[in-house]
From TrEMBL, chain A:
It is found in: Membrane. Its cofactor is [2Fe-2S] cluster. It comes from Paenisporosarcina quisquiliarum. It is a single-pass membrane protein. One of its GO terms (cellular component) is membrane. It is an enzyme of class 7 (translocase). It comes from the Bacteria. This is Menaquinol:cytochrome c reductase iron-sulfur subunit.
From TrEMBL, chain B:
This is YpiF family protein. Pfam families: DUF2487. It comes from the Bacteria. It comes from Paenisporosarcina quisquiliarum.
Amino acid sequence: MSNNRVSRRQFLNYTLTGVGGFMAAGMLMPMVRFAIDPVLQKAGGGDFVPTDKKVADITDVPERVDFAFEQVDAWYTSEVTSTAWVYKNGDKIIALSPVCKHLGCTVNWAGSPDHPDQFFCPCHAGRYEKNGNNVKGTPPLGPLDEFEVREKDGLLQIGKTRPNTLV
Amino acid sequence: MYWNSKDVSVFLEQKEFVDTAVIPLLLIDGQASQLKQNASSAEFLMALTAFIENQFKGRVVLMPPITYTKKSNYQQLAEEWTETLSEMGFKHLFFVSSDMAWGTEASELNVIYTPSIPLENMDQKLRQSVLDDQLRQIIPVFANRWAKNGQ
Ligand code: FES
């Protein structure tokens, strides 16, 4: 019986190694994770969201295209629907954000009968040209944002917004 | 804008542009047979007013709903709220409800009446298009009233 007794020294050794090991692991794991994180990341298709708009149907007149994506707020996932104004400039597809650069209302193409070839914001009569450039003298201070776009299987896909590259 | 501290600080800075309050009027009937219907129309009203907020974000503040019962004094509610919101600096008040009683009880409020559509069994897409249709009918009401009472 007395042979099996764990001495004070042994006991401390065991416990300290054990606890120390856990602590070291706790510290090292995140570091390792950070280092190899890119490897662990899911290889997704980027942040493009599919729409059901056929690229062939897009004309040179801006048209509303809705698209839905999942938004994760902390642990809550919800489906959000967004809109873009889409048209063709020659062969290039342009998708503009409908969010007014003044205070964030939703703008409409040809929303004002007096300006049939501009975007119009109903809130404070802000106006934008077709390329998204804000009309001077109306409240907005900058051009409409642009969405990244790409085509997949003949359908339009919409990506992130970026500052307008057309003006 | 929503009635939260972040948006309200924008409202305080931009009072000349943010001049409109949207107020959902929500009836809780209380009768057991009506509960489901009540809840469903609350759901609809909140979804619709959120759509309105999204469309007119830069000019309207969507207030938390005024919730009342059948026993509430409609007339008094109307007066209290009109007074308070006007004192806050709102020039235009849009009350939205699917309770038809507002038309007769307090007609001077000009409540925008919207029939309640049960959204609970719809998928996201259908929901979106139903709400869109309703929004499209409401937009001119806003535009007209804004035009009438000046910018
Ligand atoms: S929010 Fe568009 S003009 Fe003010």
